[in-house]
Amino acid sequence: MKRVISMIILVFLLILPLVTGATLKCPPKAPTHRVVCRFKGNGTGEIYLKSVDGLPPRAYLITIKNSGGYKHSINDEWDTFKLPANVSFSPVSVLGRIKDYYFSFVPDWVLFNKEHTFTFVFIEENGTQKEFDVRVYLEGTSNWTEFKKDLEWMIISFLFTWFILSALFGVLWLFNRRLTQRPVKFQIVPTTSGWIAAVIFGMYLSHPFIFGLPYYFGGGSNLWGDIVTGWSIWALVMVVPFYIGNYLLIPIHLKSTAYHKPLPVLKKRKLAFCSGLVWIIVPLLLISGALDSEIKSLLLMSFAGAFAVFTHHILKTLKPEGVLFINLSIVGFLTLKYHPDFVFVVLLVILLFVVYLLQRGCFIKFNEEKERLIGEIYEKVKLIQGTENSKN
């Protein structure tokens, strides 16, 4: 009986294609355009790239060279090859396509001079799988000329937008004043509105600042965590100018309501566009996977409108301190869950404190200005009534 069992095991082992002592070794440092790794062992199978820094690749090409010639692994098409073999790929090409999906505006060179983790999976002919985590430090040269051009373009766009919009708002202000013939002081509108719009447009063009440079200088190696927090930073940088504008324009908007609308309308006015929570939508788009679905993305982004509508109630209920606590708790969750680079965490916290100060200022200024105008209208009404009574 023992002999029969031994013969069965021997036959099974002879039939079963084995991969013995399989190892995948890559150089610890390599140029960005090509890395050649040595895949040792015995056996036959297929290899594919599972992830890069924890993110699935968007497209890739792996070239395999062994005694039988060249084979390839391209996205979902994998050639079968026999070990041992040399495995080569272009790190900058693989990383660049991932980066382009999330941050197409960031130059490729911000990914250089960092260690990246490439996870390969080898599938044996019998279906057995084995993972290999390969860490490679990519040596590359920074393209500061490209960055300088981006910076110059951002400054020119900022100044041009400020000038055009200021001129446009100035014309509209003159036209409106001529129609109404009211001596209301709207001189702040052209410059403030133009500056706010220019800041927003300038920030929209400043992506290398927001993500590229912190990632490049911060030493970040967890690309997914840095992308999640990088998007959050981008969202906050875009939101802050709106809050600044909201703060500066509060007196003008309330005066406009006071002079052109009945008193009950003024009393019902609520503070909007300063909830401090709208940035949450951005990391949620990424970590929920909704970014891959237009419908889910639109549903999530619709919360921005809800946050704007309920800003007054949010701040009245939670207070700016409560909103800050929620925001910092979310940053804590992102940090513990995705391990972003420390620089990104610090930038996020700083921006959230800026948002807190602007929220607090907006809430106080709105309520004070509103009460002042209501009191001013009541005084005018009393004065008019007193004049009429004296005439009678």
Number of helices: 12
Mean pLDDT: 80
The general outline is: elongated
Terminus-to-terminus distance: 127 Å
Percent of residues in helices comes to 55-70%
Uncertain runs are 8-20, 183-190
Oligomer: single chain
| Coarse structural class | alpha+beta
Say how many strands there are: 11
Return the domain count.
2
Largest sheet: 6 strands, antiparallel
Strand order of the largest sheet: 1-3-9-5-6-7
Q: What is the beta-strand fraction?
A: 15-25%
Q: What is the alpha-carbon Rg in Å?
A: 31 Å
Order of helices and strands: HEEEEEEEEEHEEHHHHHHHHHH
Describe the structure in your own words.
The protein has 12 helices and 11 strands. Helix 3 (144-180) runs antiparallel to helix 4 (188-204), helix 6 (223-260) runs antiparallel to helix 8 and helix 6 runs parallel beside helix 12 (342-391). The strands form 2 sheets. The protein has a 6-stranded antiparallel beta sheet with strand order 1-3-9-5-6-7, with no helix packed on it. It folds into 2 domains: 20-139, Immunoglobulin-like (Sandwich), CATH 2.60.40; 206-385, no CATH class. 60% of the residues lie in helices and 18% in strands. With 392 residues, it is of the alpha+beta class. Residues 8-20 and 183-190 have low confidence and may be disordered.
